[in-house]
Structure to design on (298 residues):
C-alpha cells in the first residue's frame, strides 16, 4: 500500500526540484562570497575555513553513514586528504585570505577563471583543448588581465595573486581527483571537507592566526550560513543536478555565480564596481561560456 501523500510525487518531480536546485546553486553559492567577507571581519580567514568545513563535513558524514552509505577506504581517505589540499586549502582558503582586501564580487569573478585552468590542466593529462576551447582560454585570460587593471584587484596585488592561485588550485585538485579512487560523490564531499581542516589548520598556524576577541554575532551567523547553506544545502543541490540534468546546465553556476556575487556585494555589502571591473567580468564569463560550449559539442 502506498502511504505517500498525494502531493509527494509532484513535489519530488524534476520539474519542481531542478528549478529549486538551480536557484539554490546560483543564489547560495553566489552569496557565499559576501558571507565570507562578513565572517572574516572577526574570524581569521584560514581559521574560519578550518572551522567551517570539518563541521559541515562531519554533519554530512554522520547523516550519510546513518543512511547506510559505506565509509571511505583507507586509500580513499588519503586521496580525499590530497584533494582537500588543493580544493579547500588553496581553493577556498586563499579566497578567504584575498577577501580581506578584495571586494567579494570581484573575488567571485576572478575565481570564475577556474574553468580556464581546468582546460589547461586537462591538457597535461592528454586532453588538450580544441579550437573553441583555446579561443575561450585566450578570451578568459584577456578578461583576467582587464580585471587586474581595474581598481578592485589593482589595489591589492597580493589578493590578486591569491585568487589566481586559488582558481589554479581548485582546477588542479578537480582534475587530479578524477583519476583517483574516490568515495561516492556525496560521501567524497563529506570526507574532503573533514580532511580539509588539516591543510587549512596548518595554513592558519603558518600565518600565525589566532582569536584576539570574541567574534560578533554578525560574523558567527555568516559562518553558520556558510556551513549550512554554502557547504551542505548548496552542495546537495549541485549533486542532484549532476544526476538529473545535462552537465552544461549543472556546471552553469561557474558563470552565473560571479554576476550574482557582484550584485549581492553591491546591494547588501556596499561594495563599489567600476567600469573596468564590469568589462573584465564580461570577458571572463564569455571565455568560460566558450569553453563550456566546446565541451558539449565534443
Amino acid at each position: 500500500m502506498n502511504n505517500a501523500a498525494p502531493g509527494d510525487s509532484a513535489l519530488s518531480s524534476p520539474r519542481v526540484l531542478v528549478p529549486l536546485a538551480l536557484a539554490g546553486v546560483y543564489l547560495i553559492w553566489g552569496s557565499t562570497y559576501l558571507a565570507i567577507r562578513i565572517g572574516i571581519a572577526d574570524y581569521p580567514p584560514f581559521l574560519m575555513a578550518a572551522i567551517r568545513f570539518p563541521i559541515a563535513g562531519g554533519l554530512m558524514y554522520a547523516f550519510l553513514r546513518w543512511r547506510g552509505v559505506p565509509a571511505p577506504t583507507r586509500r580513499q581517505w588519503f586521496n580525499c586528504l590530497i584533494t582537500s589540499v588543493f580544493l579547500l586549502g588553496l581553493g577556498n582558503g586563499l579566497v578567504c585570505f584575498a577577501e580581506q582586501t578584495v571586494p567579494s564580487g570581484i573575488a567571485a569573478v576572478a575565481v570564475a577563471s577556474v574553468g580556464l585552468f581546468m582546460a589547461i590542466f586537462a591538457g597535461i593529462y592528454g586532453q588538450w583543448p580544441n579550437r573553441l576551447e583555446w579561443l575561450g582560454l585566450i578570451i578568459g585570460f584577456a578578461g583576467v588581465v582587464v580585471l587586474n587593471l581595474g581598481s578592485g584587484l589593482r589595489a591589492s596585488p597580493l589578493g590578486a595573486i591569491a585568487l589566481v592561485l586559488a582558481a589554479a588550485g581548485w582546477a588542479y585538485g578537480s582534475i587530479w581527483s578524477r583519476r583517483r579512487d574516490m568515495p561516492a560523490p556525496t560521501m567524497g564531499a563529506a570526507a574532503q571537507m573533514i580532511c580539509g581542516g588539516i591543510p587549512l589548520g596548518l595554513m592558519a598556524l603558518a600565518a600565525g592566526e589566532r582569536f584576539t576577541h570574541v567574534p560578533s554575532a554578525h560574523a558567527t551567523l555568516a559562518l553558520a550560513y556558510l556551513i549550512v547553506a554554502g557547504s551542505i544545502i548548496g552542495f546537495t543541490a549541485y549533486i542532484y543536478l549532476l544526476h538529473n540534468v545535462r552537465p552544461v546546465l549543472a556546471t552553469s553556476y561557474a558563470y552565473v555565480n560571479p554576476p550574482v556575487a557582484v550584485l549581492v556585494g553591491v546591494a547588501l555589502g556596499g561594495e563599489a564596481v567600476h567600469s573596468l571591473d564590469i568589462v573584465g567580468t564580461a570577458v571572463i564569463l564569455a571565455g568560460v561560456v566558450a569553453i563550456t560550449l566546446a565541451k558539449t559539442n565534443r
